[in-house]
Amino acid sequence: METSEILKRVRQIEIKTRGLSNNIFAGEYHSAFKGRGMAFSEVREYQYGDDIRDIEWNVTARFNKPYVKVFEEERELTVMLLVDVSGSLEFGTQNQLKRDMQTEIGATLAFSAIQNNDKIGVIFFSDKVEKFIPPKKGRKHILYIIRELLDFQPESRRTDVGHALEYMTQAIKRRCTAFVLSDFIDQKDFSQPLIIANRKHDVVAIQVYDRRVAELPDVGLMKVVDAETGHEQYVDTSSSSVRNAHARWWKEQSERLRDTFTRSNVDNVSVRTDHDYVAALMSLFAKRS
């Protein structure tokens, strides 16, 4: 992509996503994520309506009546975007490529973070960490992130979500909110790195997928290329058994992914490339508020 074209796309995405974060997500982002950026302040006696999860059991036992922890909001959060840039993200048969949608979601989250005075950084990953942008504030920093989201060229085309999570766990010392943007089509089991990362940080998974990955169309003989390995083969999509086998694979893949997120206690949402990611993000925020 030429420099002038990149700058034009950066501006288009800035106008669209900053508008979304200002007008639609302004309060929702803050209420959905501020609770994870709270610092312990003091204890006081339990009052009706307090969250029982905040009970301080040691003090309660000592005084024989319930006390709760009082938190004060930290002045700022650190937000990390873990962005999958492997070959499979370059696929899209409907409105846009998976990578294009990831870029818009990432930019929207970035503007939402900065509007709340949070720092934001990015880890671009394939089966290795391709680039690390340390968390900072400011519009200039956001526009740099958007530019990289648009035009970053990875060295590898394969995927290793677990490696990216391990890197983030080590690199970011203070607790952060980490959004993992990926299709999560990974040959390796990343459940253990996800559990460990979510103990230290607040991890949120956003899956972006294409309709044609979920269901094969009946269009006869079709050449299929694996975007990550380059392997090519012809598939007879007119065969109902082929289409059914593919549907079973997708169902099993989706159930395994949901199970991984549930066991890891990670909030997550799935967005199809021909659907509205705004509605998906709003439902995610509502789930957490």
Task: Detail the topology: elements first, then pairings.
Blueprint: H1 3-23, H2 26-33, E1 38-45, H3 57-63, E2 67-73, E3 78-84, H4 98-115, E4 119-125, E5 129-136, H5 139-151, H6 161-171, E6 177-182, H7 191-200, E7 202-209, H8 211-214, E8 221-225, E9 232-236, H9 240-264, E10 267-272, H10 277-288
Helix pairs in contact: 1-4, 1-5, 2-10, 4-5, 6-7, 7-9
Reading the helices and strands in chain order gives HHEHEEHEEHHEHEHEEHEH
Share in helix: 40-55%
Q: What would you call the structural class?
A: alpha/beta
Question: How much strand content do the residues show?
Answer: 15-25%
Radius of gyration: 21 Å
Shape: globular
Overview of the molecule:
This protein is α/β, with parallel strands linked by helices and 289 residues long. It is 45% helix and 23% strand. The strands form three sheets. A six-stranded mixed sheet has the order 5-4-3-6-7-10, sandwiched between helices. A two-stranded antiparallel sheet has the order 1-2. Helix 2 packs across helix 10 (277-288) and helix 7 (191-200) runs parallel beside helix 9. The chain starts with a helix and ends with a helix.
